[in-house]
Amino acid sequence: MRPPVAHHHPAGGAPRRPCPPVAHHHPAGGAPRRPCRILIVEDEKRLALSLARGLTAEGFAVDVVHDGREGLHRAGEGVYDLVILDIMLPGLNGYRVCAALRAAGHDVPILMLTAKDGEYDEAEGLDTGADDYLTKPFSYVVLVARVKALLRRRAQGSGASPVVVHGDLRVDTAARRVFLGEEEVTLTAKEFAVLEQLVVRAGAVVSKSEILEHVWDFAYDGDPNIVEVYISALRRKLRHGLIGTVRGAGYRLETDR
């Protein structure tokens, strides 16, 4: 049995409006709002089918592929609002698929799934450009919450909001772009969200729990040390000493001396 999928692609290359997290009805008197399109790249066919059915019931348009190379090809078409990507795949593993998409300039949010556990695997996934990470077995409710949080953050990025300047660091919260001096720094959606929490409160201490509450958007029940993984990634990409640790309290975007 084939999983419930949506094979219609938007016509031509017209820009796509940000989609709502769910789309169960059409707005009164207006044009139909397209549902968010999600690509699932998962070789466990029973799991992929279960996720597709559940997400379709939530109002998403879902496509499923079971091979890394096919997943890279489909995700590279640029028609998806989010990709759910397993790491252990035939053809190409999830790390390589994610890295190839980012190298090609695709900024689609990527939620990685893996049966592995441990900070090393998580850090590797983040380094290749993944926006979030779930370890199997996971709660379906948690997966839906992560999906909606990533889509919500992506949609919010299209609205008008100020550019925050901190020394030679410039954070454009509307375009979701970061510049250090004249050089643009490429961040994942989650890295950007963590940095945003620090930059809007530059000089103040932001606790790990505050970052979890604002960035993960729901009652996160995983390892709170995930914040440290993202802080480490930001430190690698930004200027040394920009993000300080206040022992026992949290993190602080240091002011220029």
Radius of gyration: 19 Å
Task: Summarize the helix and strand pattern as letters.
Answer: EHEHEHEHEHEEEEHEHHEE
Average pLDDT, rounded to a whole number, is: 79
Helices and strands: which structural class? alpha/beta
Describe the 3D structure:
The strands form 3 sheets. Strands 2-1-3-4-5 form a 5-stranded parallel beta sheet, with helices on both faces. Strands 6-7-8-9 form a 4-stranded antiparallel beta sheet, covered by helices on one side. A 3-stranded antiparallel beta sheet has the order 10-12-11. A hairpin with a 3-residue loop joins strand 11 (243-246) and strand 12. The chain starts with 36 loop residues before the first strand and ends with a strand. It is built from 8 helices and 12 strands. The chain is an alpha/beta fold. Helix 6 packs across helix 7. The chain has helices at residues 45-57, 68-75, 94-103, 119-127, 140-156, 189-199, 208-216, 226-237; strands at residues 37-41, 61-65, 82-86, 110-114, 132-135, 163-166, 169-172, 177-180, 183-185, 205-206, 243-246, 250-253. Helix content is 35%, strand content 19%. The relative contact order is 0.10.
